[in-house]
From TrEMBL:
This is Nitrogen fixation protein NifU. Pfam families: NifU_N. GO terms for biological process: iron-sulfur cluster assembly. Residues 1-123 form the NIF system FeS cluster assembly NifU N-terminal domain. One of its GO terms (molecular function) is iron ion binding. InterPro entries: NIF_FeS_clus_asmbl_NifU-like, NIF_FeS_clus_asmbl_NifU_N. Gene3D superfamilies: 3.90.1010.10. Coiled coil: none annotated.
């Protein structure tokens, strides 16, 4: 039911943990299932230098957050803001239809963390 990539990111997720003194933190919850995802960003000159995540949720939520952190690391915040859940799903070689909402959590968590960064640094 899951692609190899999903299983890979689920069984060995990248960038798990938290960042002390993070420049931006985004926490979102999925109303559908009650799962929670938290993303921490270290940002220098508007570039995402480091990113870590903590996800309390299903395997698809772990896999989507894991790959999302890989996709935004080293990117500018403007580029990272363009990350869509569709791009996350494609990067994972697809998700079962009933798990698409888990990828929305990843997109929202990244956006929330960047918004938090912007707010804290008077960038909006
Ligand atoms: Fe909660 Fe997916 S329904 S883990
Ligand atoms: Fe809850 Fe995947 S995030 S089912």
């Amino acid at each position: 039911m899951y692609s190899e990539k999903v299983m890979d990111h689920f069984t060995s997720p990248r960038n798990v943990g938290e960042i002390e003194n993070a420049d931006g933190i985004g926490e979102v919850g999925n109303a559908k299932c009650g799962d929670i995802m938290k993303i921490y960003l270290k940002i220098e000159n508007d570039i995402i230098k480091d990113v870590k995540f903590k996800t309390f949720g299903c395997g698809a939520a772990v896999a989507t957050s894991s790959i999302a952190t890989e996709m935004i690391k080293g990117k500018t915040i403007e580029e990272a803001l363009k990350l869509t859940n569709k791009a996350v799903v494609e990067a994972l070689d697809g998700l079962p239809p009933q798990k698409i909402h888990c990828s929305v959590l990843a997109e929202e968590a990244v956006k929330a963390a960047i918004e938090d960064y912007k707010k804290k640094h008077n960038k909006q």
